[in-house]
Amino acid sequence: MSFLRSSITPSLRASLRTASIQRVAMRSIATTPLRFSEHHAPIIQGEGTKPGTMGTDESQSTGLERFELMGRLQGVDVFDMSPLDASRPGTMKNPIKVQSMAKEQIVGSTGFPAESHETVWLKLTVDQPIARCPMSGNVYQLEYIGPQDDHHH
C-alpha cells in the first residue's frame, strides 16, 4: 500500500502543478490601483500599513471591500441589502419594483405574506422586466437605474 501511495503521489502533484501553471498563464492580471488624484478618481486601495505597526481594515482593504467599508464608516449601505417591499402582494397593475444597476437581476420570492412558501428564484432582465412567481402570484418589475448608454457588447 505504501508503495502504491508513494508512486501515485508525485504524478498527481505534477499534473496539478501543470494545470495550475496553465490556468495562470491563461489569465491576465492587472494590478494597477486607482488612487485619488487631481481627476478625483475613486480610491479603491488603502494607503497600506506603516512599518512597525499593526494593519487595520481601513489601511489594507482594496476594491469592493474598501468601497463597502468606507460606506459603512459614513453610515451608508452601499449595496442596499434591505429586503424588498413585502407589505403587499405585487400585481400586474402595481408590481413590486426592483431597482438595479445591472441589466438583469435575480429575485427571490417567498410569497405574501412573507415566507409563506419556499424561495422561488425569478430572473428579471431589461428585455423582460416583469416576472410572476408561480407559487404565490406575486409580480416583480425591474426598474433599471444603470447607465443608459452602455457601450459594452
Describe this structure in words.
By secondary structure, the chain is of the alpha+beta class. 26% of the residues lie in helices and 17% in strands. It is built from three helices and five strands; from the N terminus they run αααβββββ. The protein has helices at residues 2-26, 57-60, 63-73; strands spanning 96-100, 104-109, 120-125, 130-132, 139-144. The longest helix has 25 residues, at 2-26. The N and C termini lie far apart (56 Å). 8% of the residues are buried. Residues 1-37 have low confidence and may be disordered.
Instruction: Give the radius of gyration.
Output: 24 Å
CATH class of the domain at 96-144: Mainly Beta
Mean pLDDT: 75
Secondary-structure element pattern, one letter each: HHHEEEEE
CATH superfamily of the domain at 96-144: q5lls5 like domains
Taken from the alpha-carbon principal axes, the silhouette is elongated
Give a quick account of the main beta sheet: strands, pairing sense, barrel closure. Answer: 3 strands, mixed
Which range best describes the helical content: under 10%, 10-25%, 25-40%, 40-55%, 55-70% or over 70%?
25-40%
Q: Provide the structure class.
A: alpha+beta
Which spans of ≥5 residues are poorly predicted at pLDDT below 50? 1-37
Named at the architecture level, the CATH assignment of the domain at 96-144 is: Sandwich
GO cellular component, one term: mitochondrial envelope
Keywords: Metal-binding, Zinc
Pfam family, one: COX5B
GO molecular function, one term: metal ion binding
